[in-house]
Amino acid sequence: MLDVKNLIRELNNLYDNGEVKFDSSLTYLMDLNFIKRIEDRYLITNKWINFSGKITREDLISSLACCYPPLLDYLLWKVYQEAYAIGQSGDGEALYEFIDHIPKFAEKILAIREQKFSETSEIKAFYGPIFKGYPQYRTILTRLQFIQLAEEIEDTEVERIGKTPNDIWVKERKVSSNIHLEVLKEKNLYALTPYKYDDFQVPEEIKEILSYPWRTFIVVLGMVISEYKAEGINGISIRPKDIKNPYTEQLLETFIYDHKGKEHKIGDFKEFVKQFCDRNNIHLFPNKAPEVDVILFQLMDNKQFTYKDGEYVLNSSFDDRLYSSEGIIIKNRARKFKSMLRDYIEELRKSL
């Protein structure tokens, strides 16, 4: 009998961290292409990520739990029996609603409608976690609707997470967009989340940056901004929406300069980051823009970023430290990642 509480716990772990150690209760999700097995790990797929951008966390966890084959068969059979009874009562509109709501399950329903299903203790164990009680007709129908939103998306291979930004921020990497996750004591093998950075011995301030993916991202972007300025070029600018209160946490905006030096507002900073990730096949889970505005203000609090001449830039003293021996892991071992960012900015500049 399946341990439903353990299943829900592992689904939540996957939602947060992108991968978990092998657990046999999750095998059915591999058959459905929501996860794949690599060595002793289960890693979420692009199908999972695409699905995560369409519904809430609670609905995604419940929907994936409902995909457990014995439960799904029972729910389809149960909802068909009720719909059939509705049709027999002459309520044609309700029957049409049933047919219209779950077209992808039509073939499955036809295959099981004449079978006999019993409400086993295993099936009952799902009711509380998924339905908050005994499942009603419309509640089941809604859950089945959500499941149909999942699309078959081709998955891709990605190398193991390395020890430096160049080997961490690579194309096809799956990266958590949740900025509030706790630091993992043992880092994942493939999906990038905050983890205690012990790969190299570095100063505590640098370790703090490397332990949080989005801090690393913004610091490296800050280096790109600094290098543009050192070349006498305005390439990209991050600015507050509320220019009267630049030190108050708020949504930020991104400006790109074309090759004639004219500035163009291209939208919110977090959407710029999301579009960069999409363009470079960096897969964010859940599939939404990370709250990088919050991260930048954390870096401001740490005196690593500052507000100067109407925009957010690296603090000059911290910038100098990054280019010294203290920041060697970021200075020398983030060049590929920095180039990836700059190439994207140059694409935008050329397109304006």
| Low-pLDDT runs | none
The secondary-structure element order is HEHEEHHHHHHHHEEHHEEEHEHEEHHH
Quickly count the helices. Answer: 17
* Structural class by SSE content: alpha+beta
Largest sheet: 3 strands, antiparallel
How many DSSP E strands? Answer: 11
Could you please describe the fold and organization of this structure?
The protein is of the alpha+beta class and 352 residues long. It has two domains: 1-155, no CATH class; 165-351, no CATH class. Helices cover 50% and strands 12% of the residues. It has 17 helices and eleven strands. The strands form four sheets. A three-stranded antiparallel beta sheet has the order 1-3-2. Strand 7 and strand 8 form a beta hairpin. Helix 1 (4-17) crosses helix 4, helix 4 packs across helix 9 (137-147) and helix 5 packs across helix 9 (137-147). The longest helix is centred in the first third of the chain and has 20 residues, at 69-88. The protein is elongated. The termini are far apart.
Considering the chains and any ligands shown, give keywords for the structure:
17 helices, 12% strand, alpha+beta, three-stranded parallel sheet, three-stranded antiparallel sheet, elongated, 2 domains, 50% helix, 352 residues
